[in-house]
Amino acid sequence: MVAVLERSTDTVPVRRVASWCLEGLRLWRRYPLRLFLLSLAPMVLEALLQLVPLVGVALSKVFPLLLSIGVLQGLVDAVSSGRLRWSSPLRLWQHSYRWRALGLALLCGPLVFGLQQLGVAAIYGWPAVDAILLGHVAAHPEFANRTFSCLLILPGVPVAIGLGLAPMFVMFRNATPWQAMQRSLTTMLRSPAAFSMYAGIQLLLTAGMLLVPFGLLLLLPLLPWMTACWYVIWTDLGRTADKS
């Protein structure tokens, strides 16, 4: 049973970040291939949804996030049962928080994507909007480069990390989507050094992989590790709260 984060007035030491990262790797090693493949499911769904005319891009920023929450729930269940189910991404709908999870996806997905879109639009103008928001990537081959990928993806990383605990508050604290987002940010602001360090690690890894050939493919192994890290962070903060 995952620890429940009630409150924590203590600042998390920066040294705990190394523990989060290492424990995340150890947790992933329990289910190496299965967690990797399950973590790919949201990416595959996102790519498929973007093929839908007109509304595909909008849908691709919501429903893949729901699958990601399902994978996280599956990992939580696996820690107690010892079995990570292939059906984890879809088992979300069996839980009472399913509609709140949908509300969270409707808020977080478009928020992160909107900030990414605003960034490239500010630099490249309407062509970037046409390529990314309207899905006409093939019409803009000038964006098929590493610089554009970095400018598009990297601004979303710290925002996504800031909201990274929100699914946990929805799943285990009965928070509304808006409350979950607020509590995620508040929790991290209590320990700014630790979470800034964690965000910096994620940014450096993401940037480093985007800047090498086939970098987008190299990013894929980060997905299961990130999922495992969020579980580790939540349980670690829960233990801190229990001691306070």
Molecular structure report:
This protein is mostly helical and 244 residues long. Helix 2 packs across helix 14 and helix 10 crosses helix 11. It has 14 helices and no strands. The protein is globular. Helix content is 72%, strand content 0%. It comes from Dyella kyungheensis. Keywords: Membrane, Transmembrane, Transmembrane helix. This is Membrane protein YesL. The chain crosses the membrane at residues 35-56, 62-80, 101-126, 146-172, 193-212.
Order of helices and strands: HHHHHHHHHHHHHH
Helix content class:
over 70%
Q: How many strand units?
A: 0
The number of helical runs is 14
Q: What is the makeup of the main sheet?
A: none
The rounded distance between the terminal residues' Cα atoms is: 20 Å
Strand content: under 5%
Radius of gyration: 18 Å
What is the arithmetic mean of pLDDT? 89
Structural class: mainly alpha
What is the approximate shape? globular
List the SSEs and their pairings:
Blueprint (H helix, E strand, L loop, with lengths): L15 H15 L1 H18 L6 H4 L3 H19 L6 H4 L6 H27 L1 H7 L13 H8 L2 H7 L3 H8 L3 H13 L2 H19 L4 H4 L3 H22 L1
Q: Keyphrases for this structure?
A:
244 residues, mainly alpha, 14 helices, 72% helix, 0% strand, globular, Membrane protein YesL, transmembrane
How do you describe this structure in short?
The protein has 244 residues and is mainly alpha-helical.
